[in-house]
Target: Guanine deaminase
Amino acid sequence: MDHAYAKVFRGAAFTSKTPQEVDALKDCLFCLDADGVIQRILKPLDPDYGTTLAAYSGTDKFHELAEGQYFLPGFIDLHIHAPQWAQAGTVMDIPLHDWLDTYTFPLESKFSDLDFARKVYQDLVATLLANGTTTALYFATVHKEASFLLAQICADKGQRGLVGKVVMDDWEQNPAYYRDESTEAALADTESFIQLVQELNKTTKQGVYPVVTPRFIPSCTDEALAGLGELAKKYDTHIQSHCSESDWEHNYVHERMHKSDTFALHEMGLLQDKAVMAHAVFLSDADAELFAETGTAIAHCPISNVFFSNGVLPAARFTQKGIDIGLGTDISGGFSPSLFDNIRQAVIASRMLEEGVDPSLPASERGLPHSRISANEAFYYVTAGGGQSLSLPIGRLEKNYIWDVQVIDVNAPNAKLQIFEEAISMEDLLHKILFLSRPENIREVWVQGECVHKRL
Ligand SMILES: [Zn+2]
Model:
């Protein structure tokens, strides 16, 4: 019998098996090593269950859930603009291009002020943890120092942060008050940012990662895009950008590059296994195949898409094509910091795509058949799909995966999820949790085996 576990958790848990199937683990023991990695999951019928329980129960290494509490994998936010937290919930009624020029670029330019940046970023990271988000893939701003500050705040608060210093070097496309000074400066700042964060990662248990981040093709020169592709290769980093988000953006790239976003990004060395592209609503079949071939993932941002994308992502079709998909809040194109809200919207949007929305059309012409996704698929996207998109061992409760979890309490004070049928199936219970729970139901959040949030 192995007494060497650093921590043992006892309780029921949900984890995705496939995009369509969820595994409900009842009364299991989750045995962790000192790095916060799951070494063993013991079910009640396992011969070692009783002896392990007896060895750890009552010690300070043992954590047991109360009645009505469940482990869910921590959620993974695949697309979020950290500085835009300051304007979340406002200005949702103008087109993308105006929204950037009139509100968003002026706001992001203020992050040259580190005091302002600290205030916003500390609040955002704490808010995300309280909402069950254990890993986030962030766009920061063009400022190297403030971007590094965000990585430090993630490191301090215990969140797994993947952070990008944003590149916007095209002098014609970006306002004079908010852009990189030159292409050379953009690449040099990105390189030194990568080195700083990789150094910080060495002393950060849960990991912080630098991300090569061209904002999107419209704000970058060809030279910067190609240079960023080389940096990503040289330092083996993640990559993020926006791809075929809206009619305006999609058409702009076609006019300038005479090809789609996808093929242009690929030529610049920006599509690969650790690349995540936000939105990707307007991918052609050829684009989608290139995503699948290169292992590039889609950050599906279903709330933001309603306001800024002019369409609904055909997520079910892209999953069938073998593309990795995760969910993103896209603060502040999306207003909510909660991935629970984005699970709900992902399911709702897919139903509207399938059924159609114009009642004056006959039912047979109204929608796009076979577009719906189930609650199980949305759960998969926000957990296992996100982990796979980032090529990290997170998002599943399985051996050799990292212990990133949220503890959901259906009996939380002032937020009780009423269960009227005692014989409710575990799958129905999960769906109740996904559709009805509120931040009050998230009692604890753990990242890499460490408790990072507790709601008393
Ligand atoms: Zn975005």
